[in-house]
User: Fold this.
Amino acid sequence: MPKGYRLTASTGIHKGDRDYQQDQVLLLSHPRVSGCVLAVLADGMGGRSGGRKASDQVMMTARQLFERYAPETDDAVAALKQLVQEAHTVIRLTAVSSEEEPHSTIAAFLINPGGDCYWVHAGDSRIYHYRGAKLIKRTLDHSYVQALVERGELTEEQAIVHPQSNILLGCLGTESDPPISTHFISQLHAGDILMACSDGVWHYFTSDEIGSILSSLSAREATEFLIEKARSRGHGGGDNLSLVVVKLEPLGS
Assistant:
């Protein structure tokens, strides 16, 4: 880990106004290498037990692969792609032995000891990268409305309230292979913030709002605030909520 910052982090999860929790979130420190961190979030779908089975399979696969991951020699992008593919396969096998149709999104980011960062996602769970309050990059959803936005047929604001905003073009557990989008950050810096969250969180905030909240509060405070505010804005109709926040705090701050 380069000198100049320390990692502070927090996870949060809430069932929202749903009867059961299908989201799962995980933040792991590498068992052998200091400064290596994996964050994984999964939003399960497919009936009460089906969605939970799917997100649980993502978490189990992530734990197993990260245990074997060697930051000094392994290809981080290949490891994240393997996580998506293996979780997808296991979820498909689960579907064969059950009456449900378990599906899941995934959003995961891996920080290596040298400060390089990699992320992967499939579905509409998102990853955001901020430098202070400024958005550097976020994932683009594998969804119907995102495709309309990219074609110029909808604005970002219109997409959020579109009646078909929940239609995914790909995720884990479907008959076809999941879409796999990756991104590489060559060097994280003090003041950088990473957040992965399910649509139950990001649906209620603009990117600027998220940046302001993440930059002005601690990781724990921001996590609690985002859940509380999303619950309030959901007006009794909110989805499951989950998020993980990692902040690179300047040393001495």
In short: The mean pLDDT is 94.
